[in-house]
Amino acid sequence: MRFLSAALGFSLLVSASLFAPATAGHHKSGEGHGASSNKGQNRFSTVDSDGNGTVSEAEFMAVAAKRFAKMDANGDGVLSQDEMKRRPKKR
Fold first, then answer.
1. 13 vs 7: CA distance, rounded Å
2. How far apart are alpha carbons 91 and 84 in whole angstroms?
3. Helices (H), 1-91
4. 23 lies in a domain?
5. For residue 40, with 0-12 CB atoms within 10 Å meaning exposed, 13-18 middle and 19 or more buried, which class applies?
6. What is the rounded CA–CA span in Å between residue 89 and residue 91?
7. What is the distance between the alpha carbons of residues 63 and 69, in angstroms, rounded to a whole number?
8. Which range of residues forms the domain containing residue 27?
9. Between 70 and which of 26, 56, 61, 88 could a Cys-Cys bridge form, CB atoms 3.0 to 4.6 Å apart?
């Protein structure tokens, strides 16, 4: 149960970090503001690996797996509280 809670929390963290910037600065009409809109579009394009304009579960999970690997500093396949608190280094 503890693992399930951690996995759910991690999923929410990843989805917030990937998709919140993609929608930031957008009006209800769908139009964004300059650099903020471009940054969000670039992140979406990074996740949308096949370029079809949508993000599948597999594409989303591939990004989550890469982020998890970066966070897992000691490579043991689990995240400690300290690892969860640290932010992975930007590429």
1. 10
2. 18
3. 2-23, 34-47, 57-71, 81-85
4. yes
5. buried
6. 6
7. 10
8. 2-85
9. 88
pTM of the model: 0.54
The total number of structural domains in the chain stands at: 1
pLDDT digits (tens, 9 = 90+) for 31-73: 555 566 677 788 899 999 999 999 999 999 999 999 999 999 9
Task: Tell me whether residue 81 is in a domain.
Answer: yes
Q: What is the Cα–Cα distance from 12 to 5, expressed in whole angstroms?
A: 11
- On whether residue 90 sits in a domain, the answer given is no
34's CB contacts (< 8 A; 6+ apart) are: none
- Count of other CB atoms within 10 angstroms of residue 79: 19
In a domain, 53, yes or no: yes
